[in-house]
Write a structure and sequence with these properties.
2 strands; globular; MarR family protein; WH-like_DNA-bd_sf; WH_DNA-bd_sf; ArsR-like_HTH
């Protein structure tokens, strides 16, 4: 396995949630390859940054991605999260 990854764990968690908005933290951790504690921290970071919202549905969470949120990186200034996800998800879906 590579020592580094092009996508951060934050990006991987966000993309996994985009594919499955009802995913459990345990499933997210397994898919991304990090601990549940790390996933919980990342989800909280993404919420604070305005990239997603979490709603409680019974005993589970449902996540909603804020596609209008601006991507917080100088190179992509003015790009909305929805545009980035729209560009990446078809390629990711093909590799599954």
């Amino acid at each position: 396995m590579a020592e580094w990854s092009l996508f951060t764990n934050h990006a991987n968690v966000l993309l996994a949630i985009t594919r499955n908005p009802d995913i459990r933290l345990r499933e997210l951790a397994a898919e991304v390859g990090i601990s549940e504690r790390a996933v919980k921290r990342i989800v909280a970071d993404l919420e604070r940054a305005g990239y997603l919202q979490r709603e409680r549905h019974g005993r589970r969470n449902h996540y909603q991605i804020n596609t209008e949120a601006a991507v917080a990186t100088p190179i992509a200034r003015g790009v909305h999260l929805g545009a980035l996800i729209t560009a990446l998800l078809p390629m990711i879906a093909q590799s599954i």
